[in-house]
Amino acid sequence: MSAAVDRTLAALADPVRRRAVELLGQRPRSAGELASDLGLAPPAMSRHLRALKQGGLVEDGHPHFDARVRIYSLKHGATDGLKQWLAETEALWTHQLAAFKAHVEGGE
């Protein structure tokens, strides 16, 4: 498993961060909006956003009208490595289970 997939899974291990990803999937939001929607204090939200950024899932930018505000959004292609790993793992398990089934049904 690659380091990028490890970071992605670590970022998604927390239910609050998974909920933040769901909210950002609806539309980009400020940290304050996310904190409010998730019922978190701003420092706690900041820690979760930092983990999501380190996991490669979220990026931030400034709106053209106010450079003091950061708007967070999902990073395009952020889960591509995870999807590839999951597909490879599924293929491995499918092969292993088919071999086990053949073994059991063959009576060997």
UniProtKB/TrEMBL annotation:
Residues 7-87 form the HTH arsR-type domain. Pfam families: HTH_20. It comes from Sphingopyxis macrogoltabida. This is ArsR family transcriptional regulator. GO terms for molecular function: DNA-binding transcription factor activity.
